[in-house]
Amino acid sequence: MQLRSCRPADQAVLADLWFESWRSTGLQQPVVTRNDLARRARHELATRWTVTVAEAEGRLIGFVAICLAERRLDQLFVAPEAQGQGVGRNLFDVARSTMPDGFWLSTQTDNLRARAFYERQGMSVDQTGRALADDTVVYVLRPPERA
After folding, report:
1. Structural domains in the chain?
2. Are strands 136-141 and 103-108 parallel, antiparallel or unpaired?
3. Radius of gyration over alpha carbons of the chain, in Å?
4. What is the pLDDT of residues 68-81, one digit of tens each?
5. pTM to 2 decimal places
6. pLDDT for 104
7. Contact (Cβ atoms closer than 8 angstroms) between residue 126 and residue 106
8. What is the full DSSP assignment across 49-107?
9. If you ran DSSP here, which 8-state letter would residue 110 be given?
10. Calpha distance 6→115 (Å, rounded)
11. What is the predicted pLDDT for the residue at 147?
């Protein structure tokens, strides 16, 4: 597996990966199409996101989208067939090294697999009441204490 910056030619594949990875969660699906995600990816890449992709044998198997201005890990998805192989952890580490002073993210409350993953990475539920919607939970990663 290789990590690299997202290229313009990756956008369509990134949207497909995003769509299939989301579908694999089995969670309530919003009415979003592949084309919707492709449009959003193009917009976010042009305006807010810094994206690192994971690639294996010439194909994308995951990505992490970071919004530096908000200190937010906005998206982290791994292809269903690549889950459980350390891809997500490596992508999460990109966010950790890019934002060493900490960051936040949100996920659906019932996305138990993602929540367990974020907690294993050292994140905790934000107790400040910052919620984006009733069905979301906000996690924060605080920087390590310095002596």
Report:
1. 2-100 (3.40.630.30)
2. antiparallel
3. 15
4. 999 999 999 999 89
5. 0.84
6. 95
7. no
8. EEEEEEEETTEEEEEEEEEGGGTEEEEEEE-GGGTTTTHHHHHHHHHHHH-TT-EEEEE
9. T
10. 25
11. 56
Q: Token pair 């690639």 is at which residue?
A: 55
CA distances from 125 to 21, 22, 141 (A): 23, 22, 9
C-alpha span between 1 and 24 (Å, rounded): 21
Residue 45's beta-bridge partner residues?
none
Q: In what order do the strands lie in the sheet with 103-108?
A: 2-5, 49-56, 59-67, 72-78, 103-108, 136-141, 124-125
Burial string for 93-118 (b: 16+ CB within 10 Å, else e) reads ebbbeebeeebbbbbeeebeebbebb
pLDDT in tens, 97-140: 999 999 999 988 888 999 999 999 999 998 655 556 567 889 99
Query: In this structure, which amino acid lies at residue 138?
Result: V
Tokens of 49: 């996101």
